[in-house]
Structure formats: C-alpha cells, structure tokens
Design brief:
single chain, 942 residues, alpha/beta, Anaerobic Ribonucleotide-triphosphate Reductase Large Chain, 23 strands, 14% strand, globular
C-alpha cells in the first residue's frame, strides 16, 4: 500500500472509496444486537442547582435534566453545567445525556463512514452502539473539547493539548503572544521552548544587547493573566521550557523563587497577596509552569562534579562554563522554595521519539504529558480502570484490550473532521495524527485489589495494564494504516518508529509479574507481537498513541475516585446527595480492599466504621499492621513517600508514547537534598518529566519561622531573598472594654474574661479555673498570658481557634452554654466561645463553629422546618450504586465544600490547593494540575 492511500489531507477530503481496502470489522463487546444501549438503563429526571459555596449565590441552574439513575449527583452537575450546549433556558438547550452522547457519537459515526474506516454499514452501527454504551456506563470519556465542540456550530476543535514554537525574531515572539491568547480564549493550554531566543549575554545584529527569553516571558505572563481575568472559566494553563545549556538558564531558574520572596515581603507589609487578591497582579511569572530541559551530558556532569558549557544560540559555541553540580543545586533550591522549575529529561524524551527525522521534541503541553513536535496538538481520551474490575476481584484484560482498540479508532476518526486554532498546528497534527489515550482510577484499582500504591505488586499491575493499553493502541493503529493509510510523515520516519516500537516491546518483556498481573502481561505480550508484525507490513496510522493526563473534569464525569496515575487523596471523601445536601463517606474502595484481603464482613464493617470516625486505618480494630500500606494516600495520617510516587511513574513510563502528568508531593520538612535526590533518580529511572511540590512552600499557607535559606536549603548559594520580619506588639489602652462569661465543662466551673481593643479585635484573655494557688490555676494564668501576648503581636484569633478547638482531655463533656453543648476539653470550649464572640461568620464557617441559632437555620434551610429522616435515607440509597453508606460515615459539616476541605478538617491544617475561580470551592490535586469537585473547573488539561 502506498502512503497516500486512504489518507486525508484536510477536513472532509478523502481518497475515492474504491481505492481503499476493506474497512474494519467491529465486534460487539458490551452491546446486544437489536437492543439499543439506552434501553438497558433506568433514566430519571433531576434538578441541577449549583451554588457558590462561599456566598450561597446560584451560579448555574437547570431543572429536569435526564440521566441514568446510576450516575452520581456530582457527575450530573458537571456534565449539565459544562457540556450541555445551548443557552440556559432556551428550547434548544440540551437537557438529556442522550442528546449529548448522540451529538458527539453521531459525528464520529458519520465521519468514520465517509472516510472508509468500516467494512460495512453494520460495522459502523456496531461502532456507534459500542461507543454509546461505554460513554453511558462511564467506561471512558473523550477530553473536554470534544464535548464542548463536536456536533455544534462552533469549530470542531477536539484537542486539549498544544505545543507552539517561537524563533529568535520579534515577529515570531509577537506571534507567540497571539497564538497563546487564542488557545487560552478557547479554554485550552499550550507549552513551548524559548531556547531559540538568544540570551541577554549575546549581541543583536545592530550591535545592541539582546533582551533574553526571561524578559519576553513577562509579556506572555501578563497576557495570560489578562485573558484569565477576562472571564475564562479557569486559569490560563501554559508551560515554558528552557534548555539547560542556555546562557540565561540561571536567571530562568530563579524567576519564580524571587517572585515568591517578593510575595512574602508584600504580604507581611499588609498587601492582599491571596490568590485573586487586589495586589497579587504585581507578581510576575505566575501563569506558567516552568521546566528546565536537561540533557544526559548535563546529568553526567552533575554526577561527576565537572563543569558544563552554556552555548550561544546563534553560533552554538560555549560562551560560559558553570559548575554543573552548583547549577543543579540551584534548580533544586528554587523548586524547594516555590515548586518551580520542574525538569524534563531531553535524552530520554528524544530516545523514545518516533519521528526524529521531522524534528526534535523540545517542549510539552502545560501538564507535561504530551511531548511531540512543535506546532502540534494531542487529542486525549481516558478509560475508567475500575469499570474493568469484576466482582471476583479480577481485572478483565480481554475486554479492556477490545475497548482500547475501539476508542483509538474513534480518536483517529476525530482528526478527519477536527479544526485547529492555527494553520501550522492543523498541518502538523493531520500529518502525524498524535493521539493520547490514557486512564484514570489507577489508585482506586490498586486499593480495591489489595495492592499498596508503593509496592512491587502494585507497580507490576500498573505496568502490565499500561503496556496492554499502548500495545493494543499501536496494534489497532497498524491495522488502521492497512485500511486508511499510515500517517503522512511515516515513510520518512519508518526506521525510527519501528525502533521505538521494539523498545516498548522489549520493556514489556522486562516486567516482573505477580499473580494479579500475569494474565494482563500475557495479553500485552501478544498485543506487542501483533503490533510489530502488522506495523512492519502496514506502518502505523499514528505517530503517538498514549499519555497519562490529569483527567480532571472528565474524571468527575466518569465518577472516578482517583485521577490519572494518582493514588487516593484520602480514605474519607465528600459526596453530594440527590435532592441537595452532602455527606462524608468512606471510599467504597476501602470495603472492596478489605474483602480482597480476606477480612470477614463484620471485621470489615468495624474497620470501615473506624475509618469513618478517624479518617485513617492506624489502630483500626482487627486490621493487621502489614495491611496499613494498602490504604496509604496522597494526604492524611499515612502518606506515600516521594520516591513511591517516582517509582510508580518509572514503572509505567516505558509503555507510554508521551509522558505523565503528575506532581511528586513532598512534606514540608523535605530538604533541598531530597529534591536533588528525586530529580536525579527520575533521570536514572527513565522518566521523561518530573515536578515536585513541597507542602507549604507557597504563600497563603502557614510559614515556618526561624529558617534561613542556608539552613533549610543546605547550600551556600542564597537563591531566595530572606527578609527578617520582626513583629510589633500592639498594646491595649489602660481602659478597654471586656466581657466575662461563666461556664461549666464536665462539672468543672470557671470564668473567661476577654478584653478588646476599643476599635474592635480581641487583645487579651483571663481564665479562672480551679482554686487560687493551685497548679491548675497557675497553669491557666500562664496560658492566658501567652495567648494575650500573642494576640497583641498580631497572631490571628482564628489560628488559635484552629489549634485548640477539638483538643481532648479531662475535664470534658456537657456544658451549660447553649451554643457549645459538648466540649472535648476546657480549651475546646474556651476557644469555641471566643470564636463565637469575636470572629465573623465567614471565618467561623471555615472553622465549623456556629451558634445554636445558626445551626437551626442551616438545618431548616437545607431540609425544611421538619427533617424527613426516611427521605434522607432513601436519598442516600438512591445516590449509591454500590453498598449503602458504611457505618460511622457521618454527614459532613455544612461548611465543607470539597474532599480537600473535608481532609483539612481531618488533618487540622490547610492543604496547598487554590480556590476555584468559578465557584470558590477549594480544589484538589489532579496530576500536575488542580480540579474543582464543585463545578468541574480545572487548572490544566481535562
């Protein structure tokens, strides 16, 4: 077959049908002949009313939408508000999931027929039914642009990830600004490498000194921030990459760390530096992720402790030599201080490049999973791995493989009808047909099968599944090449493409198998064998097949517990209920895991009840300590170590065409040396990209006092400007207003006197408890004095409330205060009372502290004057598609808006996550991005 047979050179253009071989024969996987997928599910009508968590205002409302009864409230809300097309309230507005799926699947069906993908019309119908069934049952999802655009009057943009190019000319730089703006306007993200721009240490042709790439980053950053604040539903997502041998590399490395130091100084001076604050716009470089592109030569120089040459952009000559180990330390120090820059390993990336004759891979999309040619795009889709886990605890690898092959077929069809934001991107994508199939719910799958995330068995299972996914994808790509032709750039890159396929197959042979992964691995081995044989005859239809994306919004659409390759966030999660309201439940993967591990139902029930109360498994009754690791999460009591995340990434990387969107979480106590170790091990283990996030390294979180840059960073070079801030004591006047409250806690009597500044604000407390001269009385006097001095030095009252409320010690129990009926200790009562008397409602709501009247009003507002307990029970049972809510899983406090906020209450500390710019809910990590559980907005790819 020649290269031109069956290929498409543009939208709607195809070779005559007679010139093509017979198309694909599509077999039924999930559907039954003569029965439409819609007839196999129970449908129901629901009202979608989404409010801003912070002020209660309604930001979206559509009533009477139609969804399967098995879909959760959250998935219903996300799909209705994000993906239904048409003006809200208009007759033409979509109101049923059937309409949405039909709109999208119909286009894929017609385009597949028009472009010769199917052997017969019956095969095309089976394809449409299978696609419909899998979308209906949340087996997989296309990325968001497909749902936004396909089948509408808008341009048929199907890609979420873009890579741009910029050269060393002013025209190219200005075009970069323009192209990024167009992509941001459409809600997508882009990345690019600035290394072609000459450094500030080089001369212009006119004789002047060049500005350097960092200076041009300012303009692009301002543009992204303006477009974001101009009404986009999420922050502009962008990636900026600079090669490690660029003469301005040190300036690039330090940009965000220096800005973070500036933020701290301005915040301490009283400026509003919160996310979205009035003064945050003065901070630069905050709208992009920064990454350094390191070479194998540089990493070997780091290991050897030798010098490394920085090269002029125009001539390639070395204009400066630097200590490689010192530069690497600078990268780690900056990442330790502010989480940027990440690292991309150029040698590994280009060693696995299928089309090197058409250009090097120099950049990535914003989340670092898509890596291919400049001016290209990637169309993503992700499978829900948990839907392939049977009731017997076995992963259905055969059905998984067939599903992958059908989804890859659909993804390739989309390029036939797709539109693109720029002509160069369209030309490259049509010529190389890059796809990005991936998955979500790996963390939930591992837990449900009794595997620890950081374990040999867990990594083996993940590697086998990923290998089967990519092997099946390229096998189908080779089959498609025999039907509609290989990608246009294949002939020039045939040798390189075949070499990379052999590397994937060889890596599959090296996978160490365990009982849970051996069957999957056998199928993967067969798939790679067929892939190589078929590809040798036909070539391949796609230059790239697989990536692991964050799966943010589409993860919510599929009701996934975990996103992408991530482990579970926590064991207790926030869940919305049918008819309104919310509750906290123990993740359903916990009882599945306990069953898999051999626990009896009554043992599992007791453990689940304990988890519901405590949020972790440590000391759970009857749970063997050797099983604790199965329930380790990204946050909480037991967290997965940083190298556990890195090892999981390394296990699956050899089986991906692209890379992995994931941030390696590190504790606040991690050192610069720890960051260096992670970045060095990432290179040795064959990763393509790596980013870290150290807890509390960003402003807006509590900062540790008394740490110098040298002591905490461990190096001689001061990367972060340290400004010593001395607090000033604001003394109370001689005469000040005060209020005394008498109280009893568990039968112990006492008095609380609170003195305030005349212009409002608590300034001192006195607590009388116990007889004068007693040890208890003396301790309370000293405690009161320390709290009073702290208040006068500016420590916020809410900080004390968050620290001392919920402390447990005797005396404890019933009180005589109607607003605080039960206290776990005297301090718990005192600070709840102080919060009620001296903090505004908004701050108390964040702390979960309400007066009796406020709680009564909340219940009445949520459930009516009379609470229908039976109705609530039925609502919960309707919501659950699996077992009913486990014992001990209680209703979440009304001030909680997401799983992250629920986890914060459990942990007693703030999580490093931004607030959603659409609804105000605290987002949760999703790969290297963030996801809002309230409205589905993301900070990156979805």
């Amino acid at each position: 077959m020649t290269e031109t047979v069956g290929t498409t050179s543009g939208r709607g253009k195809k070779a005559p049908r007679a010139s093509r071989p017979a198309g694909l024969t599509i077999e039924r996987i999930h559907t039954t002949a003569g029965v439409h997928p819609y007839d196999e599910v129970t449908w129901e009508r629901r009202d979608v009313v989404m409010t801003n968590w912070r002020d209660g205002t309604i930001n979206f409302e559509q009533r009477g939408v139609e969804f399967p009864s098995s879909w959760s409230v959250n998935a219903t809300n996300i799909v209705t508000s994000k993906y239904f097309r048409g003006a809200v309230g208009a007759v033409e507005r979509e109101s049923s999931l059937r309409q949405l799926i039909d709109r999208v699947v119909g286009v894929y069906h017609r385009s597949g027929l028009e472009n010769g993908y199917f052997a017969t019309d019956d095969d095309a119908e089976v394809f449409a039914h299978e696609l419909t069934w899998m979308l209906l049952h949340q087996v997989f999802s296309f990325n968001s642009p497909v749902w936004f655009n396909v089948g509408t009057t808008s341009p048929q943009q199907v890609s979420a990830c873009f890579i741009l190019a910029v050269d060393d000319t002013m025209e190219s730089i200005l075009n970069w600004y323009r192209e990024e703006g167009l992509i941001f306007k459409g809600g997508s993200g882009a990345g690019l490498n600035l290394s072609r721009i000459r450094s500030s240490k080089e001369l212009l042709s006119s004789g002047g000194t060049a500005s350097g790439p960092v200076s041009f980053m300012r303009g692009a950053d301002a543009s992204a921030g303006t477009i974001k604040s101009g009404g986009a539903t999420r922050r502009a997502a962008k990636m900026v990459v600079l090669d490690v041998d660029h003469p301005d590399i040190e300036e690039f490395v330090e940009t965000k760390a220096k800005e973070e130091a500036k933020v701290r100084v301005l915040r301490d001076a009283g400026f509003d530096m919160d996310l979205g604050g009035a003064d945050i716009t003065s901070v630069q470089y905050q709208n992009a992720n920064n990454s350094v592109r390191v070479t194998d030569e540089f990493m070997r120089a780091v290991e050897a402790g030798t010098d490394f040459g920085l090269r002029a952009r125009m001539t390639g000559e070395v204009i400066e030599s630097v200590d490689a180990k010192k530069l690497f330390r600078g990268i780690a120090e900056a990442a330790w201080a502010c989480a940027d820059p990440g690292i991309q390993y150029d040698g590994t990336i280009n060693d696995w490049h299928t089309t090197p004759e058409s250009g090097r891979i120099s950049a990535s999309n914003p989340c670092s999973e898509y890596m291919h040619l400049d001016n290209s795009s990637c169309n993503l889709a992700s499978l829900n791995l948990l839907t392939f886990l049977g009731d017997d605890g076995q992963f259905d690898a055969a059905r998984f493989q067939k599903s992958v092959e059908l989804i890859i077929t659909a993804m390739d069809i989309s390029i036939c009808f797709a539109d693109f934001p720029t002509d160069p991107i369209g030309e490259t994508t049509r010529a190389f047909r890059q796809l990005g199939i991936g998955y979500a719910n790996l963390g939930a799958l591992l837990m449900a099968t009794g595997h620890a995330y950081d374990s040999e068995g867990g990594r083996s299972l993940a590697a086998a599944i990923t290998s089967l996914m990519t092997g099946a994808s390229y096998k189908r790509s080779a089959e498609l090449a025999g039907v509609v032709g290989p990608y246009e750039g294949y002939a020039r890159n045939a040798s390189a493409h075949q070499r990379v396929m052999r590397k994937h197959a060889a890596a599959n042979d090296d996978v160490r198998t365990f009982p849970a992964s051996s069957g999957i691995h056998k199928l993967a081995t067969i798939a790679w064998k067929d892939c190589l044989a078929t590809g040798e005859r036909n070539g391949w239809r796609n230059a790239q097949a697989s990536v692991l994306a964050p799966t943010g919004t589409i993860g919510l659409m599929m009701d996934c517990d975990t996103t992408g390759i991530e482990p579970d966030l926590a064991l207790v999660k926030f869940k919305k209920l049918v008819g309104g309201g919310s509750m906290q439940i123990v993740n359903q993967t916990v009882p599945r895991a306990l069953t898999k591990l051999g626990y009896q139902p009554e043992q599992a029930e007791a453990i689940v009840e304990y988890v519901g109360e405590h949020g972790h498994v440590v000391n759970a009754p009857g749970l063997h300590p050797e099983h604790y690791e199965v329930f380790d999460c990204a946050m909480g009591e037991r967290v997965i170590a940083a190298m556990g995340h890195v090892r999981m990434m390394a296990a699956v990387q050899p089986f991906l065409s692209g890379a992995i969107s994931k941030t390696v979480n590190m504790p606040e106590t991690a050192t610069v040396e720890d960051v260096e170790r992670v970045y060095l091990e990432g290179w040795k283990l064959g990763l393509k990209a790596l980013a870290i996030y150290r807890d509390n390294c960003k402003v807006g979180q509590p900062l540790s006092a008394g740490k110098s840059a040298k002591s905490s960073g461990g190096g001689e070079k001061e990367t972060v400007t340290v400004v010593e801030q001395r607090p000033i004591r604001r003394r109370l006047p001689k005469k000040r207003p005060s209020e005394t409250v008498s109280f009893t806690v568990g039968g112990a009597e006492g008095y609380l006197t609170a003195g305030s500044y005349p212009d409002d604000g608590l300034g001192e407390i006195f607590v009388k408890l116990g007889k004068q001269g007693s040890t208890l009385s003396g301790v309370m006097d000293a405690f009161s004095m320390s709290i009073s001095v702290g208040l006068q030095y500016g420590i916020p009252l809410e900080f004390y409330v968050s620290k001392f409320s919920n402390l447990r010690f005797e005396p404890a129990g019933m009180t005589d205060d109607p607003d605080v009926r039960i206290a776990t200790s005297v301090l718990d009562y005192l600070f709840r009372r102080l919060a009620l008397d001296h903090l505004p409602y908004e701050k108390r709501a964040q702390l979960g502290i309400f007066s009796a009247d406020e709680r009564t009003a909340q219940v009445a507002d949520q459930y009516g004057e009379t609470v229908d307990v039976e109705g609530l029970r039925q609502g919960v049972e309707t919501e659950h598609t699996g077992p009913v809510t486990p014992a001990g899983a209680s209703k979440a406090p009304v001030e909680v808006g997401s799983s992250t906020e629920l986890l914060e209450l459990r942990m007693g500390k703030a999580a490093d996550a931004p607030l959603c710019m659409t609804c105000g809910t605290k987002m949760r990590p999703a790969g290297s991005c963030y996801l809002c559980e309230g409205c589905g907005s993301t900070s990156g790819c979805s």
